[in-house]
Specification:
heterodimer, A: 400 residues, alpha/beta, six-stranded parallel β-sheet, two-stranded parallel ribbon, 7% strand, B: 319 residues, mainly alpha, 13 helices, elongated
Chain lengths: 400, 319
C-alpha cells in the first residue's frame, strides 16, 4: 500500500501567536484582543473551553480547544488521534510551522518565539520520525534569511521536509530578500508551501501600510507583472471602500497568486504549492451561494484589476508546463462541498492537471468548520476516484 | 487618655486584625492556588531571566524541557517551585542540545523511489556534558545572554562547578523574585481584605469606639490575647493551598473564634440606623481602614500584639 499524507496541517499553539492574535477575525482593538487572548489562555477559561469543547460540538469551541493546548505535541497527537481509528490510520502528517514573530507590532511578539517553536518541532521529529514531516516557516523580516544557516541545517538534516511561506503576515512572495531562498530551494528540489486564500490570518500591526511599500523591491524587477502589482497596491490604497485599506483586506495584496509568477519566471523549476486552490471566494466566484462572498469576489476583482479569479490564475497561469513543479492543495477549501464539486468538474474536464492537486486539510484552522474526518469525507465523496492519488502519489511527488 | 488604656486598645486591635488578616491570608492562598498566581509569576520571571531576543526564548525551552514539564500537576498548570539544581541541569542541557545534530534518512521502497518505508535517525552528540555546554554556546549567535552564560563557563572547570555557579545565580535571582512577588500580591491582598471587610462589616471606627467606651469588653479581649500569647496558641496559620476542605475548616475555626469573643462585626439591626449620609461615609472610611490594616498580614499584627503586651507588662510594677 502507498503512503498517504496530509500535506497541510498546523500544530503550533496559541502561545506561538502574537499577544493580539485574536484581532484576526474578531474586530477588536489590540488591547482588547491581547486581553482576550490572555483570558483564553488562563487556566480557568482554558479549562472551561476544553470542558465545553468536549461537550458541545460547536466548531469555534473545537478550534479554541486546540488553540489552548499546552504543547505542539498535544496538538500533533490530537490530529494523529483523529486518524488512528479510521481507514486513514498511519497517515503521515506535514506540519507547517509559521514564523509569527513579525505579524504584529514588536511589543506584541509571541510568548513562544519562532525559534522556540522550531526547537519543539526538532524534538517532536525525533519522537515521531516516521509520521511527522515538518516544514520550516520563513519570513524575510527574520534576520536568519540573510545566510539561511538555520534553515539549511534544518533541511539538510532532513528534520524538516520543506519550507512554509505565509505572505499575508506582511511580505510579498517576490520580496528580494527571498531570492537566495528560492535559489536554494530550486537547486535542492525542496518543496515550498504557501498560502493563497482571502481568509486566514494576516498582518495585525497598527499600520498595515508600513509593510506595503508603493513600489516593493522585487527579485524580478523587470517582470511584466510588476507594474500591474504596483498599480494594484495603489488601487487598494485609494479604494473608496474603506475596508480594502484596512489590514484584513489590504493583506490580500500579499496573497494574490499573480505575485508568484515573477518568482516562477526566475525559478521555473521551483517546487511550489499554492495552497487552498485560492479559497472558496475565488473558486465559486459569482456562483457562491453566500451573496456576501460573491459580492466581495466582484468588488475585489474590480479593485485588483483581475481578468479572472485567483482559482483560474492558479489553474491556467501557474499549474502549467512552463512550471513543471507547481501544485495546489485542497486544504480548507475541501470543507465546502460546492468547492469540491467545482474541482471535481474541472478534474473530469481536464481543466486542472490532476497530478498537481494535493490533499491536505489545514488542521486545526479547518476545525472552525467541521471535524477532521468529516472534512476529509467531504473531499473524498466529491473527488471520488481522484482522491486516493491526491493523498498518496501526488503528495509523494511534491514531497520527495 | 491613660497610656495603659491606649496599650489595651492596641492589643485588642492587634488581636482583631490578626484574626481577620489570617482569614485574608487563607483566602489569598486559595485564590493564588486556583489562579496559579505563584506558578504564573515564576514562569514570567524565568522568561525574563532567560530572555534572549537574538537566539530564542530559552524560558519557553526551559518550560518544555522534560524535567520541568514533569513538575506540572496537569497539562494546564505551571510548577509552583523549581529547585536551583533542577533549573541548572535543565538549562545546561538546553544550551548543550544546540550542539547536537540529528540526521534523518528517508528509506524508500526499492522499486518505487517515492514510497517511504521508514525514516532512520542518527544522533551526533557530545557525551561530556561540560564540553557539550561549550559547543552549545558556540552554536549561539552573540547576545548578552550568551555572553553571561559564557562567563559561567570561563569561570568554572568542570560540570559540577558550572552547575553550582548557575544554581547560585538562580537562587540569588529567586530572592529578588520573592520580593517582587510580595509587591505584586499587595494589590490582590488589599482587594481580598476589602471584600472580607465589606462581607463581614469589619468597621475599625466602630470597633475603636467600642473598645474605648466598653472597659469590660476591652479588658476581656486583652486577657484573651495575653492568654493566647502565653499558651503560644497563636501561630501563623498553616495554609494548605491545595486542600480546599482543610482551608474552609481553618476559616470556620477562625470565624468561630471571632464570634466567641462577640466582636462588633456583621450587619446587625443597628446598621440600618445609619440613616444619615455622614454615617455611611464614616462607615466606609472604617471599612477602608480595616482593609488597609488587614493587608499588612497576620505576622505583622501578631508582632504588634506581642510587643504591646510586653510593653504593658513591663509597665506593671511587681506587687
Amino acid at each position: 500500500m502507498n503512503d498517504i499524507y496530509n500535506i497541510h496541517s498546523h500544530i503550533f499553539t496559541g502561545k506561538c501567536a502574537p499577544k493580539d492574535f485574536l484581532q484576526v477575525g474578531a474586530k477588536l482593538g489590540d488591547g482588547a484582543s491581547s486581553f482576550l487572548k490572555w483570558l483564553i489562555l488562563t487556566k480557568p477559561v482554558s479549562w472551561i473551553i476544553v470542558k465545553l469543547g468536549n461537550l458541545i460540538p460547536k466548531r469555534i469551541l473545537q478550534f479554541l480547544k486546540i488553540g489552548v493546548m499546552a504543547s505542539q505535541e498535544e496538538v500533533f497527537l490530537d490530529l494523529k488521534g483523529a486518524y488512528d481509528n479510521s481507514q486513514y490510520s498511519g497517515i503521515k502528517i506535514v506540519a507547517l510551522t509559521i514564523d509569527m514573530d513579525y505579524m504584529s507590532d514588536p511589543d506584541k511578539k509571541p510568548e513562544k518565539d519562532f525559534n522556540s517553536q522550531i526547537q519543539d518541532v526538532y524534538k517532536l521529529k525525533k519522537t515521531y520520525p516516521n509520521i511527522l514531516f515538518p516544514f520550516y516557516g520563513v519570513d524575510p523580516r527574520n534576520p536568519d534569511i540573510k545566510n539561511l544557516q538555520n534553515l539549511k541545517k534544518a533541511l539538510e538534516s532532513k528534520t524538516f521536509a520543506g519550507i512554509k511561506l505565509y505572505p499575508p503576515n506582511g511580505f510579498f512572495p517576490f520580496d528580494i530578500r527571498l531570492d537566495s531562498l528560492y535559489k536554494y530551494a530550486e537547486e535542492n528540489n525542496i518543496p515550498i508551501m504557501t498560502h493563497c486564500t482571502r481568509g486566514g490570518s494576516y498582518y495585525i500591526g497598527k499600520n498595515v501600510w508600513s509593510v506595503i511599500p508603493d513600489n516593493p523591491t522585487s527579485l524580478n524587477p523587470t517582470h511584466h507583472l510588476m507594474p500591474i502589482i504596483t498599480a494594484r497596491i495603489a488601487a487598494y490604497k485609494n479604494a473608496s471602500d474603506k475596508s480594502f485599506r484596512e489590514n484584513a483586506r489590504a493583506c490580500n495584496l500579499f496573497t494574490h497568486p499573480e505575485n508568484y509568477i515573477p518568482v516562477l519566471d526566475k525559478y521555473p523549476n521551483l517546487k511550489l504549492c499554492i495552497a487552498h486552490l485560492g479559497g472558496d471566494i475565488e473558486i465559486l466566484g459569482l456562483k457562491n451561494p453566500d451573496a456576501k462572498s460573491a459580492k466581495l469576489f466582484q468588488t475585489a476583482k474590480d479593485i485588483e484589476g483581475n481578468t479572472k479569479s485567483w482559482y483560474d490564475i492558479i489553474k491556467q497561469d501557474i499549474l502549467i508546463e512552463k512550471y513543471p513543479n507547481t501544485f495546489t492543495d485542497i486544504s480548507y477549501s475541501l470543507c465546502d462541498e460546492n468547492c469540491m464539486k467545482q474541482l471535481s468538474s474541472d478534474l473530469i474536464n481536464n481543466l486542472i492537471d490532476q497530478k498537481r492537486v494535493l490533499f491536505g486539510t489545514d488542521y486545526f484552522m479547518v476545525a472552525k468548520e467541521n471535524a477532521e474526518l468529516k472534512v476529509v469525507a467531504v473531499g473524498e465523496n466529491n473527488l471520488k476516484v481522484y482522491f486516493p492519488d491526491l493523498m498518496s502519489k501526488n503528495n509523494q511527488s511534491y514531497l520527495f | 487618655m491613660q497610656v495603659s488604656k491606649i496599650l489595651e486598645i492596641l492589643i485588642a486591635l492587634g488581636l482583631f486584625y490578626f484574626l481577620f488578616s489570617t482569614l485574608v491570608s487563607l483566602l489569598f492562598e486559595w485564590y493564588s492556588h486556583k489562579t496559579q498566581k505563584r506558578g504564573r509569576f515564576l514562569y514570567e520571571t524565568i522568561f525574563k531571566l532567560l530572555n534572549d531576543p537574538v537566539n530564542k526564548s530559552y524560558g519557553a525551552s526551559l518550560y518544555s524541557h522534560f524535567s520541568i514539564d514533569q513538575l506540572k500537576k496537569n497539562r494546564d498548570s505551571y510548577p509552583q517551585y523549581i529547585s536551583s539544581e533542577m533549573f541548572a541541569n535543565a538549562l545546561i542541557d538546553i544550551i548543550g542540545s544546540q550542539s547536537e545534530i540529528t540526521q534523518f534518512t528517508n528509506v524508500f521502497q526499492s522499486n518505487d523511489s517515492k514510497n517511504l518505508i521508514k525514516v532512520e535517525m542518527e544522533e551526533f552528540r557530545f557525551q561530556d556534558p561540560y564540553e557539550r555546554f561549550q559547543k552549545g554556546l558556540d552554536a549561539m549567535e552573540y547576545s548578552p545572554f550568551k555572553s553571561y552564560l559564557r562567563g559561567f563557563f570561563e569561570k568554572t572547570e568542570n560540570y559540577s562547578d558550572l552547575k553550582n555557579a548557575i544554581s547560585k545565580w538562580f537562587d540569588d535571582y529567586m530572592e529578588r523574585v520573592s520580593g517582587w512577588y510580595k509587591i505584586r500580591t499587595k494589590r490582590s491582598i488589599f482587594i481580598i481584605s476589602l471584600l472580607v471587610c465589606l462581607a463581614l462589616n469589619v468597621d475599625s471606627i466602630t470597633l475603636i469606639k467600642k473598645l474605648n467606651t466598653d472597659d469590660k469588653y476591652r479588658k476581656d479581649l486583652v486577657l484573651l490575647a495575653e492568654k493566647k500569647v502565653l499558651e503560644n496558641k497563636i501561630n501563623d496559620q498553616k495554609i494548605d493551598s491545595v486542600d480546599l476542605a482543610k482551608n474552609l475548616n481553618s476559616i470556620k475555626s477562625i470565624i468561630n473564634e471571632i464570634e466567641d469573643n462577640s466582636l462588633p462585626i456583621g450587619y446587625q439591626d443597628d446598621f440600618k440606623e445609619l440613616n444619615k449620609k455622614n454615617h455611611y461615609i464614616m462607615w466606609f472610611v472604617g471599612i477602608l481602614i480595616s482593609a488597609f490594616a488587614l493587608s499588612f498580614g497576620a505576622p505583622f499584627w501578631f508582632e504588634v500584639m506581642v510587643k504591646a503586651i510586653n510593653i504593658r507588662r513591663a509597665g506593671i510594677k511587681p506587687s
